[in-house]
Design goal:
Chain lengths: ~675, ~150
C-alpha cells in the first residue's frame, strides 16, 4: 500500500511539475498575474509530493518490504537500520529519486527566499526549474521507477546493499553532491531567464550569486566527502584517482568556480555578461553530463551501477534537449546581453578573466581525458586505451600553479584600473617572502632539495601572505586594527577564507604526495616494521561477528619512539547476503599525520599482507575543502544580499544598480 | 575607442595564450598518460614494445595463484584469455575481488624474463562486473581460438 502511495505522489509531483513549467510561463507572455503567482504554490506542492514519495520509499526500506524490487535488490533484513535508510539512495532508482527531490527542494527554496524578485522573473525561473523536474520525473517513471513491485514470488530477503556503501560516508556524500549538482540548476534557470528577458544587469547577478555560492559550497563538500570516503573505504589509502566519476563531479565544480568569479565581475562591473550566462549553462550541463555518463554505464567506474542502454538513450535525449535548447537560445539572445563598460589590462576584471580561462581550459583538458577512450573507440573501433592519472596531473597541476599566481594578484587588485605601482607596492615583498620561505622552511625541516615541495610551499605562502598583506592594508586607515576588521564585508571574508582553503589544500596535497610512506609487507603475528618514529607490530587476526557480516579483525599495535601509542584494528569483512569481501582500513586521523593500516590477503600460516601508511598532512586536503565551502557560506551571509534588496522592495528592480551609470549595459 | 580595441586585443591574446598552453599540455600529457590495453595473446606474440607501460587483462587462470614461498608480499599468477597465458608478478595486497577464474586488469611492464611486473592490480567494485576491456579481450580470444589455438 505504502509503495503505491509513493508511486501515486510521484505521478502527482509530475503533474504539478508540468503545470509549473507551463502555467507561469504562459502567464508571463499573456501578462496574467494570477498564472504567474501560481508558480509559488506549485513549487511548494511539487516539493511536498516529492518528499512524500521519498518518505514512502524510505518506509519500504525500513519495513523490509522486499516485494518492492528496488528494496529487494538494495537491502537486507540484517542490515543495520541506518543503512536501511541510506540504502534508499544506494542504487540507481533511489538516487534518481533523491536527485529529483533535490531539484524540487531548490525550486521551493527559490520560491521562498526570493520574495523580492519581480514576479515575472520569479515565474520564469521557477518554470525553467519545473521543466527540469518534468524531464527527470518522466525518465524515472518510465525507465527506473523505484516503486516497481515484484508481484510473483517476492523474495524472502533482499540481496543486500553493496558493502562498499555500508558506511557513514554514504550517508552524507551523495546528498551533498546532489545538492551541489542540482543546485547549479538555479543558476541555469536564472541564466535562461536572463536570455529570455534580454535583461542581464547587476541586480540579476546579485540574485544569482548566493544561489551559485550555495550550490558550489555543497558540491565542494560533496566532492571532499567522496574523496574522504575513497580514502578510508576503498581500502588502499588513495584519495583521488582521476576516475571518470570523480572527473564528472569535478568538472562542474571547476566551471562553477569560474562562474562564481565571473558573476562577481558581472555584478560589480556589468561586463562578461554573455560569458557568465554561458558558464551557468555549462555548469549545469556538465552536471547533467555527469549524471548521464555515470548512469548510462558508458564509462565503467565504481558508481556505474546502471548499465542499461535504454536508460542511457533517454538520458542522452534529455541531455541533448537541455544543452541544445539552451545553446540555441544563447546563440539567438546572447548579443542582447552584451556588456559595454571598459576596463584596462591591469584591472581586477582582467585577472578574473585569466582565472576563468585557466579554469575552463583545465575543465576542457579533463573532459578530453575522460571522454578520450570513447572518442578513440568511436574513431578506431578499438576499446583498448585508457587515460591514467599522469595525463590529468600533467594538464591540471601546471594550470593550477598558474591560477594561484594570478589568485593573489587578482584579489589584491582593484576594479576598472589598478596602477602597476600599487600592485608592486603591495606584492613585491610578499613575492620575495614566499619564495624565500618556500625554500628555506622545507630545507630546514627535511634537509633535502625538493623542487616540487619548494614550489608548493611558496605558492601556498603566496596566497597566505597575500591575504595577510591585503587585510593589513585594508585596515591601515581605520583607527584600530579591530575596527578595521569590523569594517570589512562578509563577502570579503568569504573570499579570503575560500582562498585560504586553497592554500591549505595545496599544502595537504603536496606534502602528503611527497612524504607519505607506503609499505606493503607480509607480517606474521609478532612481526613489525618501523616507519619514522613509529613502529607497527602485527598481533594477528581473529574472527569477529558483525550484524550482517563476519570479519577477520587484525590488530596492529603502534609504538612511538618505543612507547606504546595506540592500536589500529583493520578488518576484512565477508558479508552474509552476497558473500562479498570488503576491506575496512583503520586510520588514526591526526592534524599533521594519519596512521593507516589495512589488511590485504592471508599468505601462508598466520601471516597476512598488511598495508601500512604514514601520511603526513593528508587531513589538510579535507580541511582546505571545508574552508573553501565555509568561504562560500560566509559570502552568502553578506548583508547586501538582504539589506539592499529589502530597502528597494517596492521599487521595481530595473537595470540600474546605482554603482556606475555606465553599467546599464543591457541593450 | 582605442581603449576598447586594446581591451579586445588583450582578450584575444589571452585566449590564444590559454589555448596554446592547453594544446601543448594536452599533447605532452596524452603522450605519457595513455595506457594501451593488450590481451595475453598479443603479449605472447611480441606485439608489445619493450620497457613500455601498458595494461594487460584477462582471467586469472584457475589454480595458478602462488603466494607461498615467495619473498615478502609477492604473489604470482597466470592471466589468460584461454588461448595464451602470461605470468604476472605483483608485490602487495590483492584487491578484494581478485579471484581465480575472475577477470583481472593489471598495470605494468614486461621484464627481461618475459614476466609481467605489475605495479597495480585493478580492483573492480562489483561482483558481476567484467570490465569492457576484459570482455573485449576474451571475445578476441574466442575469435582467435578458431584460428590459432587449435593448431
Amino acid at each position: 500500500m505504502i509503495p503505491e502511495l509513493g508511486n501515486f505522489s510521484l505521478v502527482l509531483a509530475l503533474s504539478l511539475a508540468v503545470l509549473l513549467s507551463v502555467l507561469p510561463m504562459v502567464g508571463v507572455y499573456r501578462n496574467n498575474q494570477l498564472l504567474m503567482t501560481l508558480s509559488r504554490p506549485l513549487s511548494a506542492g511539487l516539493w511536498v509530493f516529492m518528499l512524500l514519495s521519498f518518505g514512502c520509499l524510505a518506509y519500504a526500506f525500513l519495513d523490509d518490504d522486499f516485494s518492492v524490487r528496488y528494496v529487494a535488490s538494495n537491502s537486507n533484513s540484517l542490515l543495520p537500520v541506518y543503512y536501511k535508510f541510506t540504502g534508499v539512495w544506494g542504487g540507481h532508482e533511489g538516487s534518481l529519486l533523491l536527485w529529483v527531490l533535490m531539484v524540487a527542494s531548490w525550486t521551493y527554496a527559490v520560491s521562498l527566499f526570493s520574495r523580492n524578485l519581480p514576479l515575472d522573473i520569479l515565474a520564469r525561473v521557477l518554470s525553467v526549474m519545473g521543466i527540469i523536474s518534468v524531464c527527470f520525473l518522466v525518465f524515472m517513471l518510465f525507465t527506473s521507477n523505484p516503486f516497481d513491485r515484484l508481484m510473483l514470488n517476492p523474495p524472502a530477503d533482499g540481496t543486500d546493499l553493496n558493502p562498499l556503501l555500508q558506511d557513514f560516508g554514504l550517508i552524507v556524500h551523495p546528498p551533498m553532491l546532489y545538492m551541489g549538482y542540482v543546485g547549479f540548476s538555479v543558476a541555469y534557470a536564472f541564466a535562461i531567464t536572463a536570455l529570455l528577458t534580454g535583461n542581464l544587469d547587476a541586480a540579476w547577478a546579485r540574485w544569482t550569486r548566493p544561489w551559485t555560492n550555495a550550490a558550489w559550497a555543497f558540491l565542494t563538500i560533496g566532492i571532499a566527502l567522496g574523496s574522504w570516503w575513497a580514502y578510508y573505504e576503498l581500502g588502499w589509502g588513495g584519495w583521488w584517482f582521476w576516475d571518470p566519476t570523480e572527473n564528472v563531479a569535478f568538472m562542474p565544480w571547476l566551471v562553477g568556480t569560474a562562474l562564481i568569479h565571473s558573476l562577481a565581475v558581472t555584478e560589480k562591473r556589468g561586463v562578461f555578461k554573455s560569458w557568465t550566462v554561458l558558464l551557468a549553462i555549462a555548469a549545469f550541463s556538465l552536471s547533467l553530463l555527469g549524471t548521464f555518463i555515470i548512469r548510462s554505464g558508458l564509462i565503467t567506474s565504481v558508481h556505474a551501477f546502471a548499465v542499461d542502454p535504454e536508460r542511457g538513450l533517454v538520458l542522452l535525449a534529455i541531455l541533448l534537449v537541455v544543452i541544445g535548447a539552451s545553446l540555441f537560445l544563447y546563440a539567438l539572445r546572447a548579443p542582447v546581453v552584451k556588456g559595454t563598460a571598459s576596463y584596462t589590462i591591469t584591472s581586477r576584471e582582467l585577472f578574473l578573466l585569466v582565472n576563468n580561462i585557466l579554469l575552463v581550459v583545465s575543465t576542457a583538458g579533463i573532459l578530453l581525458g575522460t571522454l578520450y577512450p570513447l572518442i578513440h573507440e568511436a574513431v578506431t573501433g578499438d576499446a583498448n586505451v585508457s587515460v591514467g592519472a599522469p595525463y590529468f596531473n600533467t594538464i591540471f597541476l601546471p594550470l593550477m600553479a598558474l591560477l594561484v599566481v594570478f589568485l593573489t594578484i587578482g584579489s589584491i587588485s582593484r576594479w576598472k584600473k589598478t596602477s602597476v605601482a600599487y600592485l608592486k607596492q603591495q606584492l613585491v615583498k610578499v613575492a620575495i617572502a614566499s619564495i624565500l620561505l618556500g625554500i628555506v622552511v622545507p630545507l630546514a625541516i627535511t634537509q633535502e632539495v625538493n623542487v616540487p615541495i619548494f614550489l608548493a610551499v611558496a605558492l601556498a605562502l603566496w596566497i597566505i601572505l597575500g591575504i595577510a598583506r591585503d587585510i593589513q592594508s585594508k585596515t591601515a586607515n581605520k583607527g584600530s586594527f579591530i575596527s578595521g576588521l569590523k569594517s570589512l564585508s562578509l563577502s570579503y571574508y568569504g573570499m579570503q577564507t575560500a582562498h585560504l582553503g586553497m592554500a591549505v589544500i595545496i599544502l595537504g596535497i603536496c606534502l602528503t604526495s611527497h612524504y607519505s610512506v607506503e609499505r606493503d609487507v607480509r607480517l606474521a603475528p609478532g612481526q613489525g616494521i618501523e616507519i619514522g618514529s613509529y613502529e607497527f607490530i602485527f598481533q594477528g587476526v581473529e574472527r569477529v561477528q558483525g550484524p550482517n557480516y563476519q570479519a577477520d579483525a587484525g590488530e596492529v599495535t603502534v609504538l612511538k619512539n618505543g612507547d606504546p601509542y595506540l592500536t589500529l584494528r583493520p578488518e576484512k569483512r565477508t558479508y552474509f547476503a552476497t558473500g562479498s569481501v570488503q576491506t575496512e582500513a583503520d586510520i588514526d586521523v591526526g592534524f599533521t599525520r594519519d596512521l593507516f593500516a589495512a589488511l590485504g590477503d592471508p599468505r601462508g600460516e598466520d601471516a597476512w599482507v598488511v598495508r601500512i601508511h604514514l601520511k603526513p598532512f593528508v587531513f589538510w586536503i579535507w580541511l582546505g575543502a571545508f574552508l573553501m565551502a565555509g568561504g562560500g557560506v560566509i559570502a552568502i551571509c553578506d548583508r547586501r544580499y538582504r539589506v539592499r534588496d529589502t530597502a528597494r522592495k517596492d521599487v521595481p528592480v530595473q537595470a540600474t544598480d546605482g554603482l556606475d551609470p555606465s553599467l546599464t549595459g543591457a541593450a | 575607442m582605442l581603449a576598447h580595441r586594446q581591451q579586445r586585443l588583450a582578450i584575444v591574446l589571452f585566449i590564444i595564450f590559454g589555448t596554446a598552453v592547453a594544446v601543448g599540455l594536452v599533447l605532452v600529457a596524452l603522450d605519457e598518460g595513455i595506457n594501451v590495453f593488450y590481451t595475453p595473446t598479443e603479449v605472447s606474440s611480441g606485439m608489445v614494445p619493450e620497457n613500455q607501460n601498458f595494461r594487460i587483462g584477462g582471467m586469472v587462470k584457475m589454480g595458478s595463484v602462488v603466494k607461498d614461498g615467495l619473498e615478502g608480499a609477492e604473489v604470482n599468477f597466470l592471466t589468460t584469455d584461454f588461448c595464451n597465458d602470461v605470468l604476472v608478478s605483483y608485490s602487495g595486497p590483492l584487491p578484494d575481488l581478485f579471484r581465480e577464474g575472475q577477470g583481472v586488469v593489471a598495470d605494468g611492464y614486461i621484464d627481461n624474463g618475459g614476466v609481467f611486473q605489475a605495479t597495480q592490480i585493478l580492483a573492480k567494485h562489483d561482483e558481476n562486473y567484467m570490465s569492457a576491456e576484459v570482455k573485449a579481450s576474451l571475445d578476441a580470444a574466442e575469435e582467435h581460438d578458431a584460428e590459432v589455438c587449435q593448431q
